[in-house]
Amino acid sequence: MIELENVYKTFTLHNQGAAVIDVLTDVSFAVAAGECVALTGSSGSGKSTLMRMIYGNYMAQSGVIRVGDVDLVQAQPREVIRVRREVMGYVSQFLRVVPRVPTLDVVAEPLLKIGTPADKAKARAQELLERLNIPQTLWGLSPTTFSGGEQQRVNIARGFAHQFPAMLLDEPTASLDATNRAVVLELIEDAKARGAAIIGIFHDEAARARVCDREIDVTGFSPQAAA
Amino acid sequence: MTDQPLLSVRKIAKTYGNHIGCENVSFDLFPGEVMGIVGESGSGKSTLLNCMAGHLTPDAGEVVFDTRVNGPRDTVTMSEPERRMLSRTDWAFVHQHARDGLRMGVSAGGNVGERLMAVGARNYGDIRDKATDWLGRVEIDSSRIDDRPSTFSGGMQQRLQIARNLVTGPRLVFMDEPTGGLDVSVQARLLDLLRGLVRDMGLSAIIVTHDLAVVRLLADRLMVMKSGQVVENGLTDQVLDDPQHPYTQLLVSSVLQV
Amino acid sequence: MTDYNFAYLDEQTKRMIRRAILKGLAIPGYQVPFASREMPMPYGWGTGGVQVSAAVLTPEDRFKVIDQGADDTTNAVSIRKFFEHTAGVATTTKTAEATVIQTRHRIPEADLGEGQILVYQVPIPEPLRFLEPRESETRKMHSLEEYGLMHVKLYEDISRHGHIATAYAYPVKVEARYVMDPSPIPKFDNPKLSNSPAIQLFGAGREQRIYALPPYTRVTSLDFEDHPFDPSKADHPCGLCAAEDSYLDEVIVDDAGGRMFVCSDTDFCEARQNAGHKGKDAA
């Protein structure tokens, strides 16, 4: 479902004397449908960078990043957008929303984008918010005023609203209490069970052990390792 | 996914004497896409927008629009009546200052109804019903339908301008700094409204702004301009989060973090 | 009489104006620019109409002038005197006898016939002016037939008053092409514009525009399907001649709020009174 072949990434800092920083070298791996893979490695090893590249958020210098049947390195913006709308979901660590939009609408939006009728989209959003223990009194408010943990749960609800065939999860259980952590892990297991290919970053080792089928150590792709 | 662009811009150039307005700009915009154009003042983004919307005649290049009846047509060389008809039907233009896009001496309902009457609507009741519906869609209380826009707040004027533009169901909307000059809180509401309308109507839009937060929320794609040239072009979040061109890196790093 | 060229204007000027008139007749409703001359009367007193009359008058013509339908108001009297003096033409107050009629704010009640010329004095020839002040833009709108704005004006009327409240200078469309300001005649007169056997000429002196309707031109008043054009007038008979179908002026007759309605067309009213019709206020 997700395949990477010989992917390279460098950052060129034009405003700092055009310094070139090699970040990832010759990344190749694949994640099949129904599989959950954890990216591991020390802080700064490039886990988040790699995740962002798979989402099309960071540019690859060369190589192939294939999600479904689209190579995101070569794809036109509209193809990337279609993949993100229909095929690949991303739960980041931070919630980014238009201020003032009610939580329920924030969660329902990914479904509206793929043409789900508004009532069905809202019903699904309500179901997820309930499951993630967001009190109903907050549904009509914008999540921008919520606590960090609440924002994280809204973000997860939004990410799981549409049943994507491919999912990227960046620290989905961080800053959650035990109850909600368990709910998120269930959601991940459900997604696996319906055949989603999942790549995640989990600092929570127990969580990683519970949902991940294998681990990929990103340190192996660092330029120092290759040298 | 359709492979027929709604708008194809080919090598557009416009100079003012020795000064370059914009130069060698080409891109395709597909149905349902929202493209942002950013750059500092004088970068040529407004010149480009006005060339595309038919307000300025470019010195060179083509602006090919996929018309409903006749398929792709170059709007630069089409006759003026055809172009003006396009700008009343399939195109819309949202000005930065609502007073440039509204008739301040005409009621809100008349402002919304004008485009309908311009394309031949002659039933007062129907026109009024449509105007009422559109005021609701842009969150203006229908009791204000007979008030003049001069009695409206800045945010309401801007929303009225949007209603007036969208009432004929255009397929392409040009926006020139649509949130410029508005309070931050009013901006957010307007952005959310625009997002919903773009999604529900399947609109394509080109938004010129210097506000990177606006394009991040509204635009699928981003074009960065400097000195009349496009220096970078791609997926909005990719251009903003992993900028490749020195100028874009400078632009992104210059934004104050709140 | 020998002190002036016939009808005051020199022959070159008259030729220039006649060319504008011919062009106007060829393109009904289109505003033809012309080089308006200084006339020995102030703007607003009919300088446009006077120049058009001067250009069409011949020594054999019989000339009539009305102002608000009346032959005996200051404006009507002075213009009639002007041409008596400078052209030596015969004048009349009888609509049927006149060959050239200059008018301000009315069309005579009596039907006009072939061979008659009706000359309108026009203050503001551009019907789109009030909504679009840019002349460059209104010219373009005329040339491209972009007339939606005219209906915006009528829409505003209905939204504010519940009906189309425009009562005079009511905009018309000529032969389904040009939108035209019929000069400030009451909307009651609009139907008479259409299909008239007479030549109708419109002169705007200050604005330097001439436009025209050749005989038997189709002229329709703009409206909405659900608010059709209604050429109504005050719902009274004339107090002097009892006419039910003529346009009336309201006249205040005392300090106690007493009033009467009388025909604005004095010639029409007198003719009826002479024929024996008698209204309730007639002496």
TrEMBL record, chain A:
A single GO molecular-function term is:
alpha-D-ribose 1-methylphosphonate 5-triphosphate synthase activity
- Fetch the InterPro entries from UniProt: AAA+_ATPase, ABC_transporter-like_ATP-bd, ABC_transporter-like_CS, CP_lyase_PhnL, P-loop_NTPase
Q: List residues of the ABC transporter domain.
A: 2-227
The catalytic activity of this protein is classed by the Enzyme Commission as 2.7.8.37
Matching entries from SMART domains are given as:
AAA
Q: Which domain of life is it from?
A: Bacteria
Which top-level enzyme class is recorded in the Swiss-Prot or TrEMBL entry? transferase
Keyword annotations for this protein?
Answer: ATP-binding, Nucleotide-binding, Transferase
Q: Which family does it belong to?
A: Belongs to the ABC transporter superfamily.
Q: What is this protein called?
A: Alpha-D-ribose 1-methylphosphonate 5-triphosphate synthase subunit PhnL
From TrEMBL, chain B:
* SUPFAM superfamilies assigned to the protein according to its UniProt record, in alphabetical order: P-loop containing nucleoside triphosphate hydrolases (SSF52540)
Q: Which SMART domains match?
A: AAA
The ABC transporter domain covers which part of the protein? 7-252
Q: Which GO terms describe its biological process?
A: organic phosphonate catabolic process
Question: Which GO terms of the molecular function aspect are on file?
Answer: ATP binding; ATP hydrolysis activity
Supply the alphabetized keyword list. Answer: ATP-binding, Nucleotide-binding
PROSITE patterns reported in the protein's UniProt record: ABC_TRANSPORTER_1, ABC_TRANSPORTER_2
User: Could you tell me what this protein is called?
Assistant: Putative phosphonate transport system ATP-binding protein
Automatic annotation (TrEMBL), chain C:
Catalysed conversion reaction: alpha-D-ribose 1-methylphosphonate 5-phosphate + AH2 + S-adenosyl-L-methionine = alpha-D-ribose 1,2-cyclic phosphate 5-phosphate + methane + 5'-deoxyadenosine + L-methionine + A + H(+)
- Which GO terms are recorded in the biological process aspect for this UniProt protein? organic phosphonate catabolic process
Task: Write down the InterPro entries for this protein, in alphabetical order.
Answer: PhnJ (IPR010306)
Enzyme nomenclature, EC number: 4.7.1.1
Tell me one Pfam family matched here.
Answer: PhnJ
Q: Which GO terms describe its molecular function?
A: 4 iron, 4 sulfur cluster binding; alpha-D-ribose 1-methylphosphonate 5-phosphate C-P-lyase activity; metal ion binding
Lyase as a keyword of this entry, yes or no, is yes
Presence of keyword S-adenosyl-L-methionine: yes
Question: Which controlled-vocabulary keywords does the entry list?
Answer: 4Fe-4S, Iron, Iron-sulfur, Lyase, Metal-binding, S-adenosyl-L-methionine
Which branch of life, at top level? Bacteria
Q: What does this protein do?
A: Catalyzes the breakage of the C-P bond in alpha-D-ribose 1-methylphosphonate 5-phosphate (PRPn) forming alpha-D-ribose.
Q: Which protein family is it in?
A: Belongs to the PhnJ family.
- Name of this protein: Alpha-D-ribose 1-methylphosphonate 5-phosphate C-P lyase
The organism named in the record is Sulfitobacter undariae
